[in-house]
């Protein structure tokens, strides 16, 4: 029987900030997943003779999607697919397997921090041979293919047993089912001083890692509890569940509130951390102190040399545009280059491949390095632990010292979720139209220094990405940025990013929202988010 099935294009298969994300029921519609997977094969020049990695965060529908992807890989002539047992792989672990096995790329089934379940979200993204998310040119080619598709290929075969590690065969294609954790854990052992970390825990150091019923549970248990000797029970919500147990696996103070309560309570351990659905994000909390992701990036960059994997120093530091400039100050001090890229990890790939940057980060709880080509939640936690072990100080002491040395970039993101698309676009258009006239104007006592719609010229391949966020900078270093989310599946989410710099040594201990009050007021004056949307305030504040 022929492997070819005729089909017609389905509208809207356009990958966003990180792959294609839709409601699960949309992905489950007949032909939806098949069309997109074939569009990926078409965009990469076919699958013949190639090797791929396959895995995901274990969310609802992933078990069925994995079988479809395997059967389509076989029909497209792939030689081999390396699959995480149970079709599970964290995003950084998938990136590592792509690189370790020198494969042609990988399929990651995840909608990351979006909730999972039949009524929630599913997603699929393709990573290239460098282990990183497909760059814009490739995602554009996928979308283009999806608008012209006429047939897809799939073999008729029984489902492949993915429940145990083994070599299997699917219509002549090798399927290698691997332990999702082993190679990743081995990589971590090469980067961090596991002896020092074992000594730290042996000395009574206590931590809580909230895996939020998502993919990092088995990784964190193996590394923190089994290899490093952290007390049993250090990892909570450690079993990945298809609906994340109803949790919203987004590691921020709002969704990881259980961890926040623990860390601000009387019996708080020394260190707390949480991760997202697919394991690439991290939130870090000290006893009684929350570490903003932008500060975390800066502290990690400033102290990375304390971990064995980075003792030679950093080649450069890259951050996404809306991320605070705290990391730039570290780069300046270290005498290395600082890069500012659009939102989304795909823009760091070229800098990492070219050896221009070692550490990268985003304000959205993402940090990583050149060890893989994705952000990596557990990596960030281990680097923090390595730094704590070496400096023998608390998180609070380390942050205080950092701010005294570099000054403090007060920072917050205000999200307005599920706005009607036309309302969100009206707000964006209103500010965009006023940008040109803003320089020199005084708003809330601050003078606008520059205002633009961010465009990125990739210094490695010369590609240009426009329309990446509206930014207004003030002469005192304050800044506001407005952009639309590219990961949501319902309406439009508007993100307002706010920043104010305090050089110190006075004024380093203010309440963040209070410190940002003039910038918040300036944003409302210039963009009228509340005015136009009729909302009282943001839904989520990080
Ligand atoms: C969000 C974050 C962005 C991150 C992306 C994927 O995108 O802002 O920094 O790279 O999610 O992260 P957006 O377009 O919604 O702002 V993940 O952990 O969802 O893969
Ligand atoms: Co994620």
From TrEMBL:
GO terms for molecular function: magnesium ion binding; phosphoglucomutase activity. Residues 13-152, 184-285, 294-406 form the Alpha-D-phosphohexomutase alpha/beta/alpha domain. Keywords: Isomerase, Magnesium, Metal-binding, Phosphoprotein. Its cofactor is Mg(2+). Residues 1-21 are annotated as: Disordered. Its EC number is 5.4.2.2. Coiled coil: none annotated. InterPro entries: A-D-PHexomutase_a/b/a-I, A-D-PHexomutase_a/b/a-I/II/III, A-D-PHexomutase_a/b/a-II, A-D-PHexomutase_a/b/a-III, A-D-PHexomutase_C_sf, A-D-PHexomutase_CS, Alpha-D-phosphohexomutase_SF, PGM. One of its GO terms (biological process) is carbohydrate metabolic process. It catalyses: alpha-D-glucose 1-phosphate = alpha-D-glucose 6-phosphate. It is an enzyme of class 5 (isomerase). SUPFAM superfamilies: Phosphoglucomutase, C-terminal domain, Phosphoglucomutase, first 3 domains. Pfam families: PGM1_C_vert_fung, PGM_PMM_I, PGM_PMM_II, PGM_PMM_III. One of its GO terms (cellular component) is cytosol. Residues 1-10 have a biased composition (Polar residues). PANTHER family: PHOSPHOGLUCOMUTASE, PHOSPHOHEXOMUTASE FAMILY MEMBER. Belongs to the phosphohexose mutase family. This is phosphoglucomutase (alpha-D-glucose-1,6-bisphosphate-dependent). It comes from Albidovulum denitrificans.
